[in-house]
Amino acid sequence: MKLVVALGGNALLRRSEPPTAENQLDNIRRAAAQIAGVAAGHALVLTHGNGPQVGLLALQAAAYTNVAAYPLDVLGAQTDGMIGYLLEQELANLLPSSRAVVTLLTRVEVNAHDPAFAHPTKPIGAVYTQAEAERAVAEKHWTIAPDGSAFRRVVASPKPRRVLGVPSIRLLLEHGALVIAAGGGGIPVVKAADGHSLHGIEAVIDKDLCSSLLARELGADCLIIATDVAAVYLDWGLPSQRAIGKVTPQALATHDFAAGSMGPKVEAACAFVMATGKRAVIGSLDHIERMLAGQAGTQVSLDGADTPGA
């Protein structure tokens, strides 16, 4: 099978942890062990989030006042290199030496006039208390939004239109490589006024929406969105919360999910299933082998049950 596996930024750095190099390496080793378990016998493209990492780099850049802070597209490219290197090394340590692991910095075209630029929704960086968030708004002029019971900075997240690295990814897969690509949703670029040349733009593309587009362009057999929760839940955080098991895209579309977290995952899974007729799964990285086998997570398919599981 040809698989696209999307690792959430919070699967690589847990919400309660400080973003130290040691913590990230520990989580990446854990992620690599899970990914290695499903790599054998499958053509695999691994994407990943970068919200905590790009937020940290943005804070570091803002702290150095001798030069202007680097734009988010450049910081995103830096996180792609860092996370890709760590994933590549840990996966190569676990897989047979005959299985190449390759990291590809991936540009993704977006529309410069996407309405997302006027309405930031993508969370990046650390988690803040309400008092810390209010101070950041006053001092840094950030846009802040709730993230569970806490708060995070949010930035523009335009829709991906074209993954520019697809031919290279196809070539690598044909030669048996495990490919790490489209990190953080890819590096956002837009067409210049001449309609041909491209340049970077200040944004962070949603990793799940980009992964869905990439999976469609590659003709993947399954899209797995691995995060830090076991499934998609209705009434999340309430005493009545319940997991959704097997479900159709049509049934999922009747519910509302948080725009900055589960919403894009559901949208990405549904778009892949509706466009391809293939299966998408949302669930915990710890259950990835069972997710692929159809035994865990929220299984989205055209013939899925229309009622939530217990």
Automatic annotation (TrEMBL):
* UniProt cross-references to Gene3D superfamilies, sorted A to Z: Acetylglutamate kinase-like
Q: Which CDD domains match?
A: AAK_CK
Alphabetically sorted, this entry's keywords are: Kinase, Transferase
Q: Which GO terms describe its molecular function?
A: carbamate kinase activity
Q: The Aspartate/glutamate/uridylate kinase domain covers which part of the protein?
A: 1-283
User: Per its UniProt record, what PANTHER family does this chain match?
Assistant: CARBAMATE KINASE, CARBAMATE KINASE-RELATED
UniProt family annotation = Belongs to the carbamate kinase family.
Q: What is this protein called?
A: Carbamate kinase
